[in-house]
């Protein structure tokens, strides 16, 4: 159903779509484990916002973000100076600009135990949550014999590490890193959309403001899209919910493993795949 979009790109797709309201679903390799990369931030956001609703975390609590916390990248991860930021705003930066340092700080503030137990509490049997971005990147640095995280970023940016080498690391292995399946991910999105209203409202709002969405690039302009993407050399991922003017709500997960640095072409194919999934699901309801 989707392979014709990705085979010419030397890529393999794992995808699933679910109608949030009536439960109809379809997919391609939807039960195959996939690595989450920054899609982990959606789970972090949900657990954090649930803690706020329970009253165990005050989102206004100021957190000092220092050089020791920074990983490099967007948001606080790329700050040049120390800053005090409310933990609730760090959660927003984590989701909206995929701030890795913000994700680490939020997890540290609330504790990683709740994040790790979240899949079991929600019945997501194909999902494993190990830790925040720093924990995963530290494993990658060890696998590549890089001294520390400061040295890792230029190594990855230089292209000196091949896709084949990356595939041998723990970050690429769903058994050793944050991982899920497309079917679990759409089930989780269904839970988010139907969850406690005040919690769901904030998580949906963060997803709506994501700056680097992929799936909605070719979506009709009347679609309201919410997303959370992730990437690693050789992987491009996104989960999303599309809300249609007629009331349909589609939870979509598209994960792609590619052996070539053809990310622009793959991203376009991902959006085409999302369109095809929505059309096929809707046709089944005609």
CATH class categorisation: Alpha Beta
The average pLDDT score comes to: 93
Give the strand order, joined by hyphens, for the main sheet: 2-1-9-8-7
Helix content: 40-55%
The low-confidence runs, each spanning 5 or more residues with pLDDT under 50, are none
The number of helical segments is: 11
Structural class: alpha+beta
Q: Mind telling me the CATH superfamily name? A: DD-peptidase/beta-lactamase superfamily
Shape: globular
Give your account of this protein's structure:
This protein has 286 residues and is an alpha+beta fold. The protein has a single domain (3-283), classed as Beta-lactamase (3-Layer(aba) Sandwich). It has eleven helices and nine strands. The protein has helices at 3-6, 40-54, 87-96, 100-110, 112-122, 133-143, 149-158, 163-167, 182-194, 197-208, 263-283, and strands at 11-19, 25-28, 34-35, 62-65, 83-86, 179-180, 224-232, 235-243, 249-258. Strands 2-1-9-8-7 form a five-stranded antiparallel sheet, with helices on both faces. Helix 2 (40-54) packs parallel to helix 4 and helix 3 (87-96) crosses helix 4. The longest helix has 21 residues, at 263-283. It is globular and about 50 Å long. The model has no long low-confidence stretch (mean pLDDT 93). One of its GO terms (biological process) is response to antibiotic. GO terms for molecular function: beta-lactamase activity. Residues 16-256 form the Beta-lactamase class A catalytic domain.
């Amino acid at each position: 159903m989707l392979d014709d979009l990705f085979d010419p790109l030397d890529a393999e797709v794992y995808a699933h779509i679910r109608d949030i309201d009536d439960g109809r679903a379809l997919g391609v390799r939807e039960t195959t484990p996939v690595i989450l990369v920054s899609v982990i931030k959606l789970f972090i956001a949900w657990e954090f916002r649930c803690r706020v609703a329970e009253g165990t975390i005050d989102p206004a609590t100021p957190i000092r973000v220092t050089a020791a916390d920074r990983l490099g990248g967007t948001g606080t991860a790329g700050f040049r100076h120390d800053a005090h930021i409310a933990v609730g705003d760090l959660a927003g930066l984590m989701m909206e600009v995929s701030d890795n340092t913000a994700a680490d700080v939020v997890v540290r503030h609330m504790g990683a135990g709740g994040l790790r137990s979240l899949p079991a509490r929600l019945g997501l049997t194909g999902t494993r949550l190990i830790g925040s971005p720093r924990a995963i990147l530290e494993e990658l640095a060890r696998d590549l014999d890089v001294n520390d995280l400061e040295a890792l970023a230029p190594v990855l940016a230089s292209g000196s590490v091949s896709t084949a080498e990356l595939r041998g690391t723990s970050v690429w292995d769903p058994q050793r890193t944050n991982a899920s399946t497309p079917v679990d991910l759409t089930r989780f999105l269904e839970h988010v959309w139907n969850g406690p209203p005040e919690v769901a409202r904030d998580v949906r709002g963060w997803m709506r403001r994501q700056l680097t969405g992929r799936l909605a690039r070719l979506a009709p302009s009347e679609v309201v899209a919410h997303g959370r993407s992730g990437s690693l050399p050789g992987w491009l991922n996104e989960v999303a919910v599309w809300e249609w003017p007629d009331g349909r709500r589609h939870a979509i997960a598209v994960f792609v493993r590619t052996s070539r640095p053809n990310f622009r072409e793959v991203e376009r194919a991902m959006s085409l795949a999302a369109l095809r999934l929505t059309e096929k699901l809707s046709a089944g309801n005609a």
